[in-house]
Specification:
This protein is an alpha+beta fold and about 425 residues long. The chain contains 15 helices and 22 strands.
Length: about 425
């Protein structure tokens, strides 16, 4: 197969890396890709990943067998629709189906119809409705921007004034709607479900860390690290997520005439009243999707092609490495408020030489570029994702952090506690 991957971040680097290791994949093209992706695949310029005509032209030029759309923005913009209309298999939902991520209000509507357990929520369109919802649900306050916000549109706070200010800011820029939810107690988990619109296969659960600082302090980010698997979830957890959440949601989307094909990310809180959905996404997460992919041994090309062509029921049960994976994000100075870019990045070659025992260490490029002199520099807030796999969680953590210590980026920062509670057995379900 020849596969085109659309996107330029660490998620796409992880996808390209896995696809390039699949013996059934003859070539991988990435658009626009990044310097790390360029080392393992052909990168083609693409000014705007939401430009359906440009993506279609690339797919036709290379006569690809499959297009994998990585980020959420082109999915919501309908890039997958244009490719399907031209007869090209696509892994990624239509614009109508991607509304599960594009609109928190729509996702709540679908969950209600499918009887999926989730937080109580109020969809607000006025300041008065916001005030009523905040008062009814109480603190901690959870306020979510209705539209896409790159993982940073959520505020969880005990401060009523802060919650109200965020809600009003969301109303001003998100189509006039904001979602106010009840707070869900308990640890969170991510389950990535591959689906062809009918059949659903789930990868083992992962956990990511959204807050910028150790101990979950500071503002939300796109994600500062992740690990998998989760030893603390109940036996059969992923099976239950499919039966109670993913399959009913996929069935409901098909019933509505908008079948969902691609990755349904299910973010859950394991509350004292059972697992409840926090949010849906329409693609692999970043960085939690990276640790899920790191352990997958089923050839990724065949798996995604089966989903894109409606034959997922013919795929054998997923094969997953029994070990552990940890990802630590190296962020630029000032992230997330005001990331500094253009700083040289060095030490990657040394980082990947770290001994991980039976596992490995590799570095995914999240926000990098080459300057006019060909020097690798930072180009975004999250710059590199350091991934380590090993037989135990302790070994994977130690390898990941040893590798991070070998990377040099002026003013960079990272969390030092990714997977620490899990390693110490301190994560529990209420």
């Amino acid at each position: 197969m020849v596969i085109l991957v659309v996107g330029s971040g660490a998620r796409e680097h992880a996808l390209v890396r896995a696809l390039s290791r699949d013996e059934t994949v003859a070539a991988v093209i990435a658009a626009p890709g990044n310097p790390g992706i360029n080392a393992v695949a052909r990168c083609e310029p693409l000014t705007d990943v939401c430009d359906a005509a440009a993506v279609l032209e690339l797919a036709q030029r290379y006569d690809v067998d499959l297009v994998v759309v990585g980020p959420e923005a082109p999915l919501v913009a309908g890039v997958a629709d244009a490719l399907r209309a031209a007869g090209i298999p696509v892994f990624g939902p239509s614009a109508a189906a991607a509304a599960l991520e594009g609109s928190k209000a729509f996702a709540k509507e679908v969950m209600a119809a499918a009887e999926v357990p989730t937080a109580m929520a109020h969809v607000c369109t006025t300041a008065a409705e916001v005030d009523d919802a905040l008062g009814a649900l109480g603190a901690p306050h959870v306020v979510k921007e209705d539209g896409l916000a790159a993982g940073k549109g959520v505020v969880v706070t005990d401060d009523l004034a802060e919650a109200r200010a965020h809600a009003l800011a969301c109303l001003a820029r998100s189509g006039g709607r904001v979602v106010v939810e009840e707070y869900l107690d308990g640890p969170e988990a991510s389950v990535f479900c591959i689906t062809d619109g009918t059949t659903v296969l789930a990868l083992p659960a992962a956990q990511d860390f959204k807050r910028v600082g150790d101990g979950d302090e500071g503002p939300n980010t796109g994600g500062m690290g992740a690990y998998a698997p989760l030893d603390w979830v109940p036996d059969g957890f992923e099976r239950d997520v499919v039966e109670r959440v993913a399959q009913p949601t996929i069935d409901e989307m098909r019933r509505r005439g908008t079948p969902f094909v691609g990755t349904l990310y299910v973010g859950l809180a394991l509350t004292s009243r059972g697992p409840k959905v926090v949010e849906f996404n329409a693609r692999f997460g970043d960085p939690d999707g990276q640790v899920a992919l790191a352990r997958l041994r089923t050839p990724l090309g065949n798996l995604l092609h089966a989903a894109a062509t409606g034959t997922l029921d013919e795929v054998e049960p997923l094969r997953v490495d029994p070990g552990y994976a940890v990802t630590v994000v190296v962020a630029s100075a000032g992230y997330p408020a005001a990331p500094h870019t253009g700083d040289p990045v060095t030490g990657i070659d040394d980082a990947v030489e770290v001994d991980a025992g039976d596992g490995e260490v590799y570095v995914l490029h999240a926000g990098t570029a080459l300057d006019a002199q060909g020097t690798l520099v930072s180009s975004g807030g999250r710059v590199l994702d350091v991934v380590a796999t090993a037989a135990t969680l302790d070994e994977a953590r130690r390898a990941a952090y040893r590798a991070v210590d070998r990377i040099h980026l002026a003013g960079s920062h990272h969390r030092s506690d990714i997977a620490l509670d899990a390693q110490q057995g301190a994560v529990s379900v209420p």
